Amino acid sequence: MVLELIMDGHINSAEPVGSETIAKSIREKLSAATIRNVMASLEEQGFLYKPHVVAGRIPTYKAYRYYVNSLSTARVPGKRELQALETMLKPHYSYVEEIMEDASKVLAAISRYTSIVVEPKVDTMLFKEIEFVKLSRRTLLAVFVTSSGMVHTRLVNTDEDLDMIMLTSMKTYMNEKFGGVLFCALKDGILEDIKKDREAYCRILAKIKETLETIIDEESTREVYLEGTSKMIGVPEFSDIERLKELFQAFEKKEKLLKLLDNCIHEEGIHVMIGSESDIKEMRDMSIITSTYRVGEKSFGVLGVIGPIRMNYSRIIPIVNYTAKTVTDILMMM
Question: Domains plus CATH for the chain?
Fold first, then answer.
């Protein structure tokens, strides 16, 4: 009870919490001296630390981890948060990218922290169709569409003049044969066809296979939607301008963020990384709360909130959880 009151006080004020403050807010009649003894015991156990000689105590990483582990993920957001999230269900979205962009904006607005939404890995998605747009005699734009409606485009250069009749035939053939196949299996299927007959298709198939490999292998092509980074300005933990610069630099390290968040995709539901658990040194004073959303049967993306360790987890966790469920519901309706 004393630890919970200290944590609530520190979350709200960002200041050390003293025994007299606890004595005023506690229901049971305990003296300040008794509370100091309890706080000293909690300090010995590693749940609190004393930043100054005459100051109160501040919760440690261990205290926040204990606190987060004790929270129920079954809680729902407050009425205002629910209303904001339910507005997402009303518009008719034409593209998956619009959903992700809106989700990041709504999540940042209602959490009042930085939000992050990462699209799923291409290799976990199902191929729906391909379209070819001829740009010049030897250059075409290959448009790959996933079953969830996500679009990936790439330029394809060939050594010969491109025949539209052959391209139309190729498109029909690929859509009929590979529709519903995982992208990671698609390139293997194309390779098998190259080895067989269909000599007229071999050269263009080889180019498409190379293009697929770049889409699947290049992590830099995946979209990361960050919203509300400016919300970190004014947070007491980042009053030092140099510390704030470090944090913004961490936000710019897209590849590191992708690698970190991809680890969360393997665990459905809420995942909380506190402080140094993220392995990104610039985010040592931050916590990341994430949840997975589903795009089809086997494909997952991840979204979440980035804020100070002193976040109100009991409020933010339900918001992140419900946002992920809302995004999943919208994607399932498309």
Answer: 2-61 (1.10.10.10), 71-121+222-333 (3.30.450.40), 123-220 (3.30.390.60)
